[in-house]
Design a protein that fits this description.
Elements (H helix, E strand, L loop, with lengths): L15 H7 L2 H7 L19 E5 L5 E4 L3 E2 L7 E2 L8 E6 L6 E6 L5 E7 L9 E5 L4 E5 H4 L1
Antiparallel strand pairs: 1-2, 1-9, 3-4, 4-8, 5-6, 6-7, 7-8
């Protein structure tokens, strides 16, 4: 797990004004201010289309549909990123609890959190609980 000091400089770096111009207010609140969308409201919560999920801020690949599963938690869930170096994990002590935050490794945008040992029976025993607004799905037919 990375600390703020050890995650380095993002490969895609923009000023706050540039991010605000590029992203909708909701996207900005989640991706750049570590907000959370309301459960069961995101466009990808119950979507199981084959394809690639990329970062809505920078377009970097994050997850593939093969690792998406129905967690019924209100947010899209994956059991693994498409490659370990696509995401950064760091401790998050906000809101009076200790969690593991998931960031895009390319632009350091907030994506959600990862949880372990919840009994979902996934190959990794992990649930990457992502905000839909942090992701963009490219269906398989357009990625082939």
């Amino acid at each position: 797990m990375s600390s703020d000091a050890s995650i380095g400089t993002p490969k895609v770096s923009k000023s706050d004004a540039e991010w605000r111009e590029q992203l909708s207010p909701e996207e900005y609140a989640v991706l750049r201010q570590a907000g959370t969308e309301r459960p069961f409201t995101g466009e990808y919560d119950e979507v199981f289309t084959e394809g690639v999920y990329s970062c809505r801020a920078c377009g970097a690949e994050l997850f593939r549909s093969e690792t998406k599963f129905a967690s019924h938690c209100g947010w899209p869930s994956f059991y693994a990123p498409s490659a370990d170096d696509n995401v950064i994990l760091r401790e998050d002590r906000a809101m009076g609890m200790t969690r593991v935050e998931v960031l895009c490794a390319t632009c350091h945008s907030h994506l959600g959190h990862v949880f372990s040992g919840e009994g979902y029976g996934t190959p990794t025993d992990q649930r990457y609980c992502m905000n839909s607004v942090s992701l963009r799905l490219e269906p398989l037919e357009s990625t082939a």
